[in-house]
# Entry
Amino acid sequence: MHYSVPEWLSPLFLIAICIPFIMIVLWVRKVTFTQHRHFTYKAVAIFYIVYLLYISLASFSGWFDKVSFPPAVLLYTTFPYAFLLFGVISNLKIYQNILEKTNLEDLVKLHIFRLIGVFFVLLAFYDALPKAFAYVAGFGDIITAISSIFVVKAIQTKKSYAKKLTYFWNIFGTIDILFTAIAANVLTKISIETGSMGVDTLAVFPFCIIPAFAPPTILFLHWSIFKKLQKKST
# Structure
């Protein structure tokens, strides 16, 4: 079942969701620019453009329409994208080089884009998502995003507690995104079995970009931060 939302919400979301893609491309550009590897950030930009087009085409072609478990949007987008990040990209020398050259605070800064979690709250407000799920997921993202500012400040000013704070923040952010992903699947299963409200809205364009992009990307960034912290310990 698809739930209606105000007409202004979808275009506003489309504008906002561009921010994380741009931030990631600019981050890669910053790290690789001094190494004269201009093609790297261009390749990332091209991949994301193609990926967004693929998500859009899949959505408008009705691939995500049927409510199933696991959700079709995960099968066609999230899982393959997660495999690409963790199974392929993480093993590439260019990724390892980027991670080595990246400052820890720059990785943490990227999480400011999780302010987009406000759209979970808005969708719940307009009865397009289960309120308990959306409020926990949305405010969890918002808290992670806002607190990243203080974590970055602690790292930059070399506070004695900066490393521990980063660990705690990173764990919280990881738990938040894992909760969102798992809870969405649980609600989908319950919805199929009982007919209760699920997260069908997240399978509808443009909001299907959230499950297709956010969980793998955010988990990959948190994992990269853990790797960076581990290297700083040795």
User: Anything to note?
Assistant: The chain has one domain: 9-233.
